[in-house]
Design a protein that fits this description.
The complex is a heterodimer.
Chain A: H1 17-46, H2 51-82, E1 83-84
Chain B: H1 7-17, H2 23-44, E1 47-54, E2 57-64, H3 66-86, H4 92-109, H5 114-133, H6 138-169, H7 182-194, H8 202-207, H9 213-234, H10 241-258, H11 262-283, H12 286-317, H13 333-346, H14 353-367, H15 373-397, H16 411-429, H17 431-435, H18 449-471, E3 482-483, H19 487-491, H20 493-531, H21 543-561
Antiparallel strand pairs in B: 1-2
Helix pairs in contact in B: 1-2, 1-4, 2-3, 3-4, 3-9, 3-12, 3-16, 4-5, 4-9, 5-6, 5-9, 6-7, 7-9, 9-11, 9-12, 10-11, 10-15, 11-12, 11-14, 11-15, 12-13, 12-14, 12-16, 13-15, 13-16, 14-16, 15-18
Classes of the chains: A mainly alpha, B mainly alpha.
Keywords (chain B): Cell membrane, Membrane, Oxidoreductase, Transmembrane, Transmembrane helix
GO biological process, one term (chain B): ATP synthesis coupled electron transport
Subcellular location (chain B): Cell membrane; Membrane
Chain lengths: ~90, ~575
């Protein structure tokens, strides 16, 4: 094992680079949501008959993410009941 | 080669040679056996072999049809990867047990009747436990015992089901069984134990993380997927499997968030993935069964890959606890890349295997009008993206650097990971190669524009949610802990009950023994009082005295009775 201080600097460790990734992900999210947003606006403006199917996917996409966040909070709550010492069974 | 030899027997017979070899010869042997087996499978073609009459039962040792062929093929590939991964191990027991175990799993897949299936089914249980015990720790010993009890129970229930089924139908052919009788119910229960149905699942998370570094990789591929094969063979289109599968994909996700041991995280996520396959079998359409078979193939690839990465971390860093890991990408860059490939594959990014196979099952669900299941599956997709796609790589290789500096994984481990990663991406890019192996003619194109966009939306937004939760420190920090699951019921209250019953039995036994002791003692006392030393019936007299008494008695009798 070598001393971590002597090592070369890694790109990820430079300050601000985590933020770059974070904003990159936000950018990707906007980009990938764009087709649906456009379709949705299209529908809102022109009331075309494609509403049901397009909205179906948008709804469930956000549903999945919301469900995920809810699940994380649920898991944190459940911890109070379910967590024991590491050697609980020993 | 012997005509119609069950391909599993090649590995089992080959395993018998393992103790006689060492060094390079053994390495060649253990790597060659899965290759020979897969060549054998494809040279035989489709058909049945090895018909025997035994006690009035008609056995069929080998049956190769498209369904068993794809499972057998993937098992052989997984065996080869596992053996490459384990080739550095200098432990005869592990190589021997692994080959017997894999051979019996392949043997069970190609079994044409249920007696042959049962024999191989039990052999998988008995041989695989040695991969857990090979850790040679007290924890592993206990976990192995619990594993063995549950696995053998599955076998016993299966045997009960087979006997009832034979009574009902007079047949032991291993084909569609269905849930129309008690026999079907018992057989489903036996398969359900091995495929880790909800509440029957704890053996997976209990035993797999306690096995050796290489043992877990091998274990993770076979037992549960053999059970999925058995379900697909005997219970396609059984409606009850759909809600069971739905519960299976959802329930483990909460545990995955909380669990600290990364091999246990992967065991929970394995459980969740099995849910997709159970749903596929439950739907039972051609597309769904194709999707199930494809998902088994792809799943074994990315799940092995992830287990191999965690095994390499355990091998080098000595731990796979989230609370102790972080920043390993500096020391193990190649393993990091392979882990990321496994992660995007299990999360079903486009151009990975998981995208293709999951899409087939999801489409089959929509085609079958199972609209309630669709959001459940989407939710599970987000959950899987979180735990296997983000949590495992992030906390192991990135996250806070804890100053662990180790070597990169050994070259054989990297090669094995490379094979798995190759398949993960290869199937995603060229799904047609996998489709040729599927049991039914494929009629599915995963890469429609709408599907790619909606999948990417779900995945990127989940990544965003994860990053936000990490950034604002909302994501639950991992702590050294045990998270209670259903097994608590049999590991704590049931254990206490068993101990209390044991004490009661011991008390009653001692009490009964005490009374019996007293009876025997009093008999001995009475005897001692009469026959004891110097007591009335034990006194000796001289012979002249004795004769005088006899003559006197005789004289008395003569006088008294005369006349």
């Amino acid at each position: 094992m070598s001393n971590p201080d002597d090592e070369k600097k890694y790109w990820l460790e430079e300050p601000g680079n985590f933020n770059k990734i974070f904003y990159g992900v936000i950018g990707l999210c906007v980009l990938i949501a764009l087709p649906k947003i456009l379709t949705l606006l299209d529908i809102l403006l022109y009331k075309q008959g494609r509403f049901v199917l397009a909205d179906f996917f948008v709804f469930y996409t956000f549903f999945g993410v919301l469900g995920y966040v809810v699940m994380i909070f649920l898991a944190k709550k459940l911890r109070a009941f379910l967590m024991r010492d590491e050697d609980y069974y020993d | 080669m012997i005509e119609g030899l069950n391909p599993g027997l090649i590995l089992i017979l080959g395993a018998l040679l393992v103790p006689l070899t060492s060094g390079i010869i053994r390495s060649i042997l253990i790597l060659a056996l899965p290759v020979i087996a897969v060549i054998h499978i494809h040279m035989l073609g489709l058909g049945t072999w090895g018909h025997y009459e035994f006690l009035g039962l008609s056995l069929e040792i080998t049956r190769i049809d498209p369904l068993s062929r794809i499972f057998g093929t993937i098992f052989c590939i997984a065996a080869f990867m596992g053996m490459v991964y384990a080739v550095h191990v200098k432990d005869t027991i592990q190589h021997f047990a692994a080959l017997i175990y894999i051979g019996s799993a392949i043997g069970a897949v190609f079994a044409g009747d249920m007696i042959t299936l049962f024999a191989f089914w039990e052999l998988t249980a008995i041989s695989s436990v040695f991969l857990i015990w090979a850790s040679r720790t007290e924890r592993a010993y206990r976990a192995g015992m619990r594993y063995l009890i549950i696995q053998v129970t599955s076998g016993v229930v299966l045997l009960g089901g087979i006997i009832l089924y034979y009574q009902d139908t007079g047949s032991i052919a291993f084909d569609y069984i269905g849930l129309s009788s008690i026999a079907g119910g018992l057989i489903l229960l036996a398969f359900g134990i091995k495929s880790a149905f909800p509440l029957l699942h704890n053996w997976v998370q209990d035993a797999y993380p306690e096995a050796t570094v290489t043992g877990t990789v091998i274990l993770s591929a076979f037992t549960t997927k053999l059970a999925i094969y058995a379900l697909a063979r005997a219970f396609p289109g059984t409606d009850i499997l759909i809600p069971i599968g739905g519960a299976m994909i959802i329930l483990p996700i909460v545990y995955v968030v909380l669990e600290n041991d990364l091999r246990r995280v992967l065991a929970y996520s394995l459980n969740s993935q099995l849910g997709y396959m159970v749903i596929g079998v439950g739907i039972g359409s051609e597309l769904a069964l194709n999707g199930t078979a494809a998902h088994v193939f792809v799943h074994i690839m990315y799940k092995s890959l992830l287990f191999m990465c965690m095994g390499a971390v355990l091998f080098r860093a000595g731990t796979v606890k989230v609370s102790e890991l972080g920043g390993l990408y500096k020391s193990m860059p190649v393993t990091t890349v392979f882990c990321l490939i496994g992660a995007i594959s299990i999360a079903a990014f486009p151009l990975t295997g998981g995208f293709v196979s999951k899409a087939m099952i999801q489409s089959a669900a929509l085609n079958g009008g199972l609209n309630i299941l669709w959001p459940v599956m989407l939710f599970a997709c987000a959950g899987i993206m979180d735990h296997s796609g983000l949590k495992v790589p992030f906390f192991t290789f990135f996250s806070k650097d804890r100053g662990i500096r180790v070597q990169e994984a050994p070259i054989n481990m990297l090669i094995a990971m490379g094979i798995a990663a190759f398949f993960c991406i290869g199937i995603g890019v060229f799904p047609g190669l996998l489709f040729d192996l599927l049991p039914y003619a494929p009629t599915y194109d995963a890469y429609s524009f709408g599907h790619i966009v909606s999948a990417l939306q779900l995945l990127f937004f989940t990544v965003l949610a994860f990053m936000l939760l990490i950034r604002y420190k909302v994501y639950p920090m991992e702590l050294r802990s045990t998270v209670l699951d259903f097994d608590w019921f049999y590991r704590v209250p049931l254990k206490r009950l068993a101990l209390a019953v044991g004490r009661l039995v011991l008390f009653v036994w001692n009490w009964t023994l005490g009374i019996a002791n007293n009876i025997v003692n009093s008999v001995i006392n009475v005897v001692a009082n009469t026959h004891g030393n110097g007591k009335a019936l034990a006194r000796t007299t001289s012979s002249s005295m004795a004769i005088m008494i006899i003559v006197a008695v005789l004289g008395f009798v003569v006088v008294f009775f005369y006349g």
